[in-house]
Amino acid sequence: MVFANVASASESPPEPFHVWTFNENSGRWVNDAANWHQKWQLTDGAVCLKNVPIELDEGTGDMPWLSLNSEKDAAPVKGAKIRFWSPPIPAAVGMRCVSMAYLVDLDSGDLVDYGLSILQHQEK
To answer: d(Cα 115, Cα 102) in Å, to the nearest integer?
Structure first.
């Protein structure tokens, strides 16, 4: 991930003021708490998307509506948005550009359309 300040689009590409590789840690990027089914996890310097297994307690006497025999769907939900939030970036930093080099590597042979969106979380 490359962090840079950009004055205008007509200038040549800016020199990065920092390059983050995720080799050390996540750099305070965090999973979206609203997503319970998938989580981003660091594995050997790569940010990998993992399915989170559902763990059910056997003691469901107070939850008669919960069926322990329901089938688990291991396939990811189509159109799911699995966000990975940056730490807040103070506006005083003046950072206007975040670039990310990425590779999508799938374990399955399915040809599915995947996309990556980057949103800057900026404090005012």
So the answer is: 11
φ and ψ at residue 61, rounded to 5 degrees: -60, -30
pLDDT along the chain (124 residues), means of 10: 57 74 86 85 85 65 63 58 83 76 70 66 64
Distance CA(39)–CA(48), nearest Å, equals: 8
Tokens of 107: 């374990």
Total residues found in the chain within this entry: 124
The rounded distance, in Å, linking the Cα atoms of 112 and 36 is 22
> What tokens were used for 71?
């089938």
What single letter denotes the amino acid at residue 102?
Answer: Y
Q: How far apart (Å, rounded) are the C-alpha atoms in residues 78 and 112?
A: 9
- The order of strands in the sheet holding 97-99 is 18-19, 2-4, 97-99
- Does the pTM surpass 0.90? The reply is no
Q: Which stretches within the chain are classed as H helix? A: none
CA-based max dimension of the chain? 66
Residue 101 is encoded by which pair of tokens?
Answer: 């080099």
